[in-house]
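Worked example

This section walks through a single chain of length 337. The input is the sequence exactly as stored; nothing has been trimmed or padded.
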Amino acid sequence: MSKRPTILDVADHAGVSKSTVSLVLQRSPLVKAETADLVRKSMADLDYVYNRAAAQLRAGGVGLIGMVINDLRNPFFTEFATSVQMSLAARGYATIISNTDEDDALQAQVAGSMIEHGVSGLVISPAYGETEAMFDRIARAGLPCLQMLRCADPRTDLFPFASFDYATGGAEATQHLLDTGAENIAFVGGVEGLPITQERLSGYLSTLATAGRKPFILPGRAARGFGREAALQLTRDHPKIDAAVCFNDLVALGMLSGFAEIGRKVGPEFQVVGFDDIEECAQVYPQLSSVSCDIASFGDFSANLMLNWLENGRKPPSEYYTDVHLVTRASSQRGQI
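Given that input, the structure is written out below as tokens.
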């Protein structure tokens, strides 16, 4: 990684004084528009990152962590962000949280803004897409940055990654359905080709292969609406499918809704297992079996990784996976509702 450009580099590149660059950064009306445009072009050419709170950070006056979350509409990620924020607050750190709604361009924008406003570190559950430039900018800023739950940048030596053992979770869910008598098990939901989908799918595929069963994959958005449509489609077009491992709980909850709509009993007639074990799994009827990731504890773990890095210089391992376990409820038990 090349040396991070300074305000003097920008001044030299633009052919102006350091004070002029400072005025432009402060959005001062004293600088002519054409001069300000020239300075901003030089900043872009050099990929200069302006840290508004660098002086305060060096003095230890700011304890501010940026959190960039791919989908706060999903209760799984909401609980993660809340757990991280509460753990950081207990240690005296404030948190800025931004939802990117799976938009890589918005993700780059909010991460850049957090850098400018002087965060001490970044915790990112990333959206997939064009992410290299964003992570390059973080590296040039010299900020500790954790990739949590998803790995969007392969340079885990620079941006350590921690998540759950999703492959084992998928395998355990599939084996449970086999053990309880399911004949034809589908994997429902998840966008094709994404690493997070492949991780959860891999355990399903390996377990079915060992059992000599054929897989049936129905990809789609990780949302309730897709789960509802999947329930209707499977019943209409694939009546021999009698069980499903779902990409996440939202898909599974949507399937419960779809089956209720057409009068197909979940449990006795079709077994469903979700993934993540959000709070609602134990509150719906029938209660939803799910692969539990203990996201609250993982949020606290993530906060401690960041604080050990910031306060003690202990950089986390490049990759870390924590255990999951299956919580069985009525939705995956034949003979129950």
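What to look for: Residues 295-312 form the longest helix (18 residues).
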